[in-house]
Amino acid sequence: MGTYGFFDVTSFALGAYGFYNQAGGNPRFPFTFPYYAFYAQDKFQLRHNLTLDYGVREDFQVYPQPKENPAFPATGEFPNRYQRVSPRIGFAYQPMDKTVVRGGFGMFYEVFNGINYENSVIANGLVSQQGTTSASFNSALPANQQAPSFPNTLGNGALFSASSDISLVSPGFKTPYIMSSNFEIQRELASNTTLTLGTLWTHGVHLIASNAYDLNLIPPSGTTTYVVCPSGTTSVVSGCSGPMFTHPNLDSGLLSSSEGLITSSFGQINALISPGVNQYNSFYAHLQRRGSRGLSLMTSYTFSKGMQTGVDFYNQFDLKDTHGPTLLDQRHRLSIAAVYSPGARNFTSQAARRLLSNWTISTLMQFNSGRPYTGLLNAACTGVDVSTCSSGNTLNDSSVNQSTINTATGIAGTNGPSPTLNLNSFYDRWINEVDLGIARTLPIGETAIP
């Protein structure tokens, strides 16, 4: 199917289009790939006050090997993984009256997203899979002699060409999985009042990177050493003194030219990789009071820390500087929930009881510390006098910004994080939410008709 574009109404009436685009290839893609799962689970009461839950799971997907592009054989290899054994175990122990201790550990594999497989199959550089063509109006010929002529489409497949950029799942790709464990102690302090103290730990392995790794790049060589000027410096024409840092060069001109390509048959060879790891640790306290004179109260506090490496990167040749908090990291979280149904049993007046009965007042309050973000340096200011540039403060675009289209688009585009700070090292303001609800139940009587 083709798309015509006209610049004005007169051109449309004459069939003199401004541009024409048409896609070709086989747009159909089946999603009938099988997914198998096998598991065994058992619960065993070892003692009257000790119960064990344990099991194991094995699951895997089966994707067919995609059609290979002879110019890059790795496009025909998909790394199916069949050995995905996931054990898990848990326990509940009551060492004394009104006290319960719980804990567990488990391993869980993620399901591979079929969209990623589809992208790797279709965008493999073969015109039979995905091709495009475009045409412009030839003013030397009448409208009915154009190729194509409005409103027809092109039928000659030889006119189509595949994109010079291809995508694939890296042959070394490994399925992400998570290891998780928890431990908590619950104690009944009084009638209808319980206190829970616990900890939760998770560890993600082989997490998918938000950036594609370009396989068609030769790692650049060389480093740049630069000086971080003191705060308030507006001009560095005469130099300045301060901390010195040395980082590898990432020259955008080199990496986008034929010098930096492994093969000139393609532009970018974007591979889906899974180098990321993260770790989450938390301590939480939970106090719950149920149904005391119409009042139910629940409050909890969580102190946590989440760190990651390799999930977001701005230099595909060096991931060591990507260690930092996850975007979901919130160190402090306090939640308070309350529901109050006062009732009207103490009123002697029947009218007052009817008016004040069936009311419920509820509130949910959350006080959360701010989420992290990465401070980016602006690449627009590359002169020696930053006082004349209001849009940025970068002096070394090659080493400080790591600004290359092939290695930095995921997190920064043409900008980059500060070389002296890790990713997500800044925290935003606290997030406070307070919800209040008032409701009344109105009973409606029904009379049966004989």
Overview in brief:
The chain has 450 residues and is mainly beta. The protein is 7% helix and 41% strand. The protein is built from five helices and 24 strands.
Strand content: 35-45%
- Ranges with pLDDT <50 over ≥5 residues? 381-388, 390-413
How many DSSP H or I helices?
5
Q: N- to C-terminal separation? A: 68 Å
Helix content: under 10%
Mean of residue pLDDT?
A: 81
- SSE pattern: EHEEEEEHEEEEEEEHEEEEEHEEEHEEE
Largest sheet: 12 strands, antiparallel
Question: Total number of β-strand segments?
Answer: 24
Structural class by sheet pairing and helices: mainly beta
Give the helix/strand layout.
Layout: E1 2-5, H1 9-14, E2 19-24, E3 35-47, E4 50-61, E5 85-96, E6 99-109, H2 114-122, E7 131-135, E8 166-169, E9 177-190, E10 193-207, E11 213-214, E12 223-227, E13 244-248, H3 252-255, E14 269-272, E15 276-292, E16 295-309, E17 324-325, E18 332-340, H4 350-356, E19 359-368, E20 372-373, E21 376-377, H5 405-408, E22 416-417, E23 426-427, E24 431-440
Parallel strand pairs: 8-14
Antiparallel strand pairs: 1-2, 2-7, 3-4, 4-5, 5-6, 6-9, 9-10, 10-15, 11-14, 12-13, 15-16, 16-17, 16-18, 18-19, 19-24, 20-23, 21-22
